[in-house]
């Protein structure tokens, strides 16, 4: 799969900024702007992914064939305990969706060294509200299993590819071919999913249970990410794409972890932990990263406003590029 070609950039006469035309597509604009991937992942210590076929609106949990009252309750419970709810479907299920009946459910906790994934087939989608969401956020697997007896542990990682076209065109144009072809190679472990943020990094993916998000993947690299996860590995750069961050951490923590990986060559996905963050109040955060073998690093992470503008989503006006950079000290 080939990403859209990058547009030319020219200085904006009034502001002195380089502006990437929004009409080129947000993914192409992000590439042209040189936008960094690290630090762009959403923050969530846990994920709940419920199968829902059929149409997805821009805010799919309350605008799809799922009961919007149920979707809203999922959003509220997730927000209260650091858990992010998603809808998923196989790439073949785009027809009119069902509102009840059996469907797959994935439940993941992401903390390194204590991550786990549970899966179930539930007869009624409303069963997801029987889940102990607070225990999921706390990483209490036993309590989560007790709350929903259909759940069973699995050692197989799953890859979710954002294809939420109503949220952003690039997710459809770039995400759907990756989801379709990767699903053909790994059926049952690759899913289309609703918005996971960062559509300008399409095709963008989420790994469960680790919570690593990647961006700018093609099918080959998406399958590499999945096969690496099967043996507990994560690599900062994958082809033309790479890691956006582990959702367990803040943006600064996500950047700090990747900087330590680049500096040390560490690929074990559970070897590194973000131990502390100190915000200086000047767009500079000092992050302490620890290794399971006892080593420690301090990473200075800086919030930077670029001289380049780009659109965050397709059809939106270009805005100044704000991102995080880091250095091990």
What would a concise description of this structure say?
The chain has helices at 26-32, 68-80, 133-138, 141-147, 169-185, 219-230, 251-264, and strands at 10-11, 18-19, 46-51, 83-89, 103-109, 116-122, 152-154, 158-162, 190-193, 205-208, 212-215, 237-238, 241-246, 272-279, 284-291, 296-310, 319-328. It is an alpha+beta fold and 329 residues long.
Task: Give the tally of β-strands.
Answer: 17
Averaged pLDDT, please? 90
Shape: globular
Structural category is alpha+beta
Instruction: Write out the strand line-up for the largest beta sheet, numbering strands in chain order.
Output: 7-6-5-3-4-9-8-10-11-13-12
Largest sheet: 11 strands, mixed
Q: Outline the low-pLDDT stretches.
A: 1-23
Helix content: 10-25%
Order of helices and strands: EEHEHEEEHHEEHEEEHEEHEEEE
Give me the number of helical elements: 7
Distance between the termini: 39 Å
Taken as a percent bin, the fraction of beta residues is: 25-35%
Radius of gyration: 19 Å
Give an overview of the whole structure.
By secondary structure, this protein is of the alpha+beta class. The chain has a domain at 25-248. It is 23% helix and 30% strand. It has helices spanning 26-32, 68-80, 133-138, 141-147, 169-185, 219-230, 251-264; strands spanning 10-11, 18-19, 46-51, 83-89, 103-109, 116-122, 152-154, 158-162, 190-193, 205-208, 212-215, 237-238, 241-246, 272-279, 284-291, 296-310, 319-328.
């Amino acid at each position: 799969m080939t990403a859209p070609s990058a547009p030319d950039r020219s200085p904006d006469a009034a502001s002195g900024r380089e502006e990437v035309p929004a009409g080129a597509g947000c993914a192409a604009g992000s590439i042209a702007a040189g936008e960094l991937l690290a630090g762009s992942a959403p923050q969530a210590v846990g994920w709940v992914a419920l199968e829902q076929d059929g149409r997805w609106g821009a805010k799919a949990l309350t605008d799809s064939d799922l009961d919007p009252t149920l979707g809203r309750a999922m959003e509220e419970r997730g927000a209260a305990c650091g858990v992010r709810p998603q809808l998923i479907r196989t790439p073949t299920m785009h027809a009119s969706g069902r509102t009840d009946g059996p469907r797959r459910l994935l439940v993941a906790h992401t903390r390194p060294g204590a991550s786990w994934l549970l899966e179930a087939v539930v007869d009624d989608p409303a069963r997801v509200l029987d889940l102990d969401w607070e225990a999921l956020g706390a990483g209490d697997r036993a309590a989560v299993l007790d709350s929903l007896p259909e759940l069973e542990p699995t050692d197989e990682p799953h890859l979710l590819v954002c294809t939420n076209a109503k949220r952003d065109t690039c997710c459809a144009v770039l995400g759907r071919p990756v989801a379709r072809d990767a699903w053909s190679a790994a059926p049952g472990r690759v899913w289309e999913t609703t918005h996971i943020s960062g559509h300008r990094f399409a095709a963008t993916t989420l790994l469960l249970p680790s919570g690593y998000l990647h961006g700018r993947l093609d099918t080959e690299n998406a399958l590499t990410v999945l096969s690496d996860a099967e043996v507990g590995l994560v690599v900062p750069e994958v082809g033309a794409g790479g890691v956006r961050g582990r959702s367990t951490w803040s943006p600064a923590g996500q950047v700090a972890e990747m900087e330590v990986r680049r500096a040390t060559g560490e690929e074990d996905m559970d070897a590194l932990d973000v131990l502390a963050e100190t915000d200086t109040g000047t767009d500079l955060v000092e992050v302490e990263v620890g290794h399971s073998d006892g080593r420690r690093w301090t990473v200075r992470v800086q919030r930077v406003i670029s001289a380049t503008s780009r659109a965050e989503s397709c059809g939106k006006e270009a805005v100044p590029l704000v991102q995080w950079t880091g250095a091990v000290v």
